[in-house]
Specification:
single chain; mainly beta; Pnp Oxidase, Chain A; 4 helices
């Protein structure tokens, strides 16, 4: 075995949970976008998504107060916007204007969808019991949208320190019927 010790501060890059997403929130007529990498599916029906949002982010306070957001899934074409959005604060920047993204009115929640993203999931906070201790929100997806013209979306996957993997080859293996 050729394994060696690995720094604990870098473990997150080994366990990336899924595509980088852009989370939109809205409060008092002001929409914001944040880049988020730390989320996980928790249940299928209804779809529940767990996510960590730093208490230092403007989106944290808005999500806590309004209890709704939209998870937007960008593709490789938006990689510069994804990184830029992650490197500035919604307290001082109108990220829709700065990054030339188009807000689209949602059906079930107040925050907008992002037109340029491959998919958008309208969400409501379902459980806040882990927010105070871990900044962990449990969201219920109440409406989902996908651009059916995009057959093989190339999503971004954060590996840490500005390094991203791009979803590539799709492999199909039949699972046992249940």
């Amino acid at each position: 075995m050729a394994k060696r010790a690995y720094p604990l501060a870098k473990v997150y890059g080994l366990l990336e949970p899924g595509p980088v997403v852009l989370v939109t929130t809205a409060r008092k007529g002001q929409a914001n976008i944040m880049t988020m990498s730390w989320h996980t599916m928790m249940e299928f029906e209804p779809p529940l998504v767990g996510c960590v949002i730093s208490g230092r982010n403007a989106s944290f306070d808005t999500l806590r107060a309004t209890r709704e957001c939209v998870i937007n899934i960008p593709t490789l074409e938006l990689s510069k916007q994804v990184v830029g959005i992650g490197n500035c604060s919604g307290r001082t920047v109108d990220k829709f204007a700065q990054y030339r993204l188009t807000p689209v009115t949602a059906v079930a929640v107040k925050p907008p969808l992002i037109a340029e993203c491959y998919a958008s999931l309208e969400c409501r906070v379902a459980d806040t019991r882990l927010v105070n201790r871990y900044n962990f929100f449990i969201l219920e997806v109440v409406k989902a949208w996908v651009d059916t013209a995009i057959r093989q979306p190339q999503t971004l996957h954060h590996r840490g320190n500005g390094v991203f993997a791009v979803a590539g080859e799709t492999v199909r293996r039949r699972s046992a019927a249940k």
